[in-house]
């Protein structure tokens, strides 16, 4: 038979307090661990957001970025339709740069800001203060030309213009790009600029944009804003 033990009232009170405390410890510990995990995740995200590219760290950064970010198809969305691009793996720094900026959503809200009929359409810039803030947050850097991979400025090729600064080595402006429209190509650009992809769908959209009205600066009268996203 089971024996029934009687506890002194004081001892009973002590046991009740111990049980209540032990019941409260576990959820607190779990909550504390959860809060610490969230805090650590926020710290990591904060450090990543504070990273700024420069001429000193851009190439080492994109060398490593290229190993883990293999996407090579993107879509440029415009009010005229979509332009799909295949980016060349053989130009890793320029491909990685474009993918990085796309993931950062840098291009969203920028424009095809230079249009030269039957020659090129150039995008990735805007006169918006918001876009200039994005560039400042991402960093100020240039990319070296990569012109020895055998790619030519055929019609439909996407390439990177050189920076506006005094630039004898034709270092590329990473935030901008242009697409060749000329049916005969633009082969005089081959030695100085880096083709890093080509249009695989939507060349008719490129042609439509190349024929819009512009001012004397070759800036479209009506802005052609873009949004860029990764397809794979």
Please, could you describe this protein's structure?
The chain has helices at residues 9-50, 58-68, 92-103, 129-138, 203-210; strands spanning 53-54, 73-78, 81-87, 111-116, 120-125, 139-140, 157-160, 177-180, 194-201, 227-230. It is 36% helix and 21% strand. α2 (58-68) crosses α3 (92-103). By secondary structure, it is an alpha+beta fold.
Number of strands: 10
Query: What kind of sheet is the major sheet?
Result: 8 strands, antiparallel
Apparent shape: globular
Unreliable stretches (pLDDT < 50, length at least 5) are: 1-5, 41-48
Q: Which strand order does the major sheet show?
A: 4-5-8-7-9-3-2-10
CATH architecture: Beta Barrel
Number of domains: 1
The percent range for helix content is 25-40%
Mean pLDDT: 84
Q: Give the SSE order as H and E letters.
A: HEHEEHEEHEEEEHE
CATH class category: Mainly Beta
State the end-to-end distance. 72 Å
What's the CATH H-level superfamily name?
A: Cyclophilin-like
Classify the secondary structure makeup into a structural class.
alpha+beta
Tell me the radius of gyration: 28 Å
SS field, number of helical segments: 5
User: Could you say what the CATH topology is called?
Assistant: Cyclophilin
The proportion of residues in beta strands is 15-25%
